[in-house]
Amino acid sequence: MTQNRLPSANLALVAIGGNLPSLAGPPEATIRAAVEQIIQLPGVVLSSLSRFWKTPAFPAGSGPDYVNAALSLQTVNSPDELLSALHRIEHDLGRVREGARWQARGIDLDLIAYGDLVLPDLATHDAWRGLPPERQAETAPETLILPHARMQDRGFVLVPLAEVAPGWRHPRLGRSVAEMLAALPADARADIRALTT
C-alpha cells in the first residue's frame, strides 16, 4: 500500500514496547510481529520505524529491561478505530489487559498522537497531563487521551519517537519531539541504548 492510496490520511504516532515473552517469542520478535500486523491493517501505511532500544523497566524495579520502538503511520482510520486495532494485535500476541498499571508485559502498543488532535478536550487533557506522579500509577483514564498524557516525561517513548517524528509538535506544549527529548533530565535517558538486532 502506498501513500497515494490514502489521500486524506492523518499522521499517527505509535510507541511499542515489551519486556516479557509473548506468543511471538522474546520482545524483539514480538515487536517485529506487531509491526507486521500493524502495516497490514486496512487504511494504514507505515511512514517510518525506529531502531529498537533497550530501556530500563518503568517504574524502576518492575521487571526486566524493555525493548522499545516507535512507528510513524499515515492512516484514514479514526483514533478510536486505530486504537481498537492495536488492542486486537496485543490480544493476538497474548496480552491480557488486567491487573496493576505499568506492570511487566509481552507487548504494549500505545497510540501516542494523532496529528495535532487533542482528545477528549483541552481541559481534560491538561488535567491528565498534570496528574501527580503518585496518582498516575493508580488511575487510568476511561477515554482516549491524545496526545498521550505522559509522553513528554518518558525517555523510552521520546528516544525512539525522535527517530521517526522529531519535528512533530505537541499541540498543548508547543514543543517538538526533539525539543521534549532535549528537555528531559539526563537520568531519564541515561540507560537507554540502541540494540543492533
Please, could you describe this protein's structure?
InterPro entries: Hppk, Hppk_sf. Residues 14-166 form the 7,8-dihydro-6-hydroxymethylpterin-pyrophosphokinase domain. GO terms for molecular function: 2-amino-4-hydroxy-6-hydroxymethyldihydropteridine diphosphokinase activity. Pfam families: HPPK (PF01288). It comes from Paracoccus broussonetiae. With 197 residues, the chain is an alpha+beta fold. The protein has a single domain (3-194), classed as 7,8-Dihydro-6-hydroxymethylpterin-pyrophosphokinase HPPK (Alpha-Beta Plaits). It has six helices and six strands; from the N terminus they run βαβββαβααααβ. The protein has helices at 27-39, 79-92, 122-129, 133-136, 155-164, 177-183, and strands at residues 10-18, 44-49, 53-55, 66-75, 108-114, 193-194. Strands 1, 2, 3, 4, 5 and 6 form a six-stranded antiparallel β-sheet that branches. The chain is globular and about 40 Å long. The protein starts with 9 loop residues before the first strand and ends with a strand. Residues 1-5 have low confidence and may be disordered.
